[in-house]
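A sample follows:
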Amino acid sequence: MAAAGVGGIGGLAGCATWQERDRTTTEGPKTEEESESLEIQHSWTAAIEKDASKALFDGFRSFYPETDIDERTVAGRAGGDLQTTIRKRIIEDNPPSSWQAWGGKNLQTYVEAGALATLDDGFWAGETEWNSFSTVSKRLSRVDGSFVAVPLSIHRLNNLFYNVEILEDVGIDPDAIDGPRTLLNEVKTVEEESDAEGLVHATKHVWPTIELWESMLVAEHGVAAHRSIANGNVRSRERAVRNALDLVGRYRELSPQALAPVDWHNAADRFRNGNVAFFHQGDWAAAEFVNDDEFAFGTDWDCVEFPGTEDQYLLGMESFPFPKNNPSSETTARFLRYVGSAEAQRNFAQKRGAIPPRKDVPKAAFAPFFRRQMSQFRRVKTQLPSIAHGLAIAPEPRTKLTNAMKEFTSTWDVDQAVGKIVRVFD
């Protein structure tokens, strides 16, 4: 049964409880084409990601035990192999029921292809409505003024984790590090005055370096430069691109993993083992730390905003869209309404290492680190969609940027990388 905008799915009304929603949405005979199964594609294959997706799908099954959930996993980050698979299936007019997708500009390609239904307030038809979500998550769920996906979780990317004991031993106040250049000097201080390693940076895959470049860019040149580049006005910001790349190269040179690349999990393990002072990474890394009873938040490790980005929340957001040519329209509508519920967002974000896009999920349910992230999200000056995670730029330029940065992480040639990046955004 195909869903054509809200007219195709808005009539699947919800009521006060999930059980009542089930009775409402299943009234009337099923067509032969309508499936009780739910096919979901996602890239949550690592341990903590699996725990989070299990919490999400188990929660949905608790209300709809008759639904068979067919999980189709695609290895790699959400913007890579998974999106390639989804685009191919849309071209073949054979989309899954829904899929893990970044918000913002990442959704634009699907809308331009006419592949997504719109989800206005009539879609919820119950206690949930779009006003339950934060302003930025609503903005990143819209394309051309229409809602086309339900947000599930928000990540902060501009985090600098630090080892409390190491910094205390060498007399470094993390709150006094006022920018990337000061940070580089403090890394050298750690290495000169202790037996610890100054930092660890994951270079086995390119995306941590793109995230680092983006944090450097905002820290050195501000939000205006970031937005200008994302909007294609890159030639006026070429110096900013160059400076950020140069700082990334200097940062990477200080990592003992410069000659032996590691992935982010191994980098996180090196940091958690206690002999590394600094680690730049998204807040999903904290999900691994908070589950380690021997690595206590506030005592063994802590976190500050990446120096120079103190009043910015550089973010990624995961969501689920509703494809028009849907193999299971009613079941998918129920699932997306569950994704948008406070319960689903709490359970998923707790496991995933994220915060919920909804405004009404109680902070008390979260570990202290994530309670602080939620407070900071609500009070920062700017909530800035990420270039690295495809929220601020469309898939095609993001793919070109990824290729340019892959070459950079191979050669570390700043001049060459600047030229390629300028052509990406020009």
Notes: The CA atoms of residues 12 and 385 lie 32 Å apart. The longest strand covers residues 312-321.
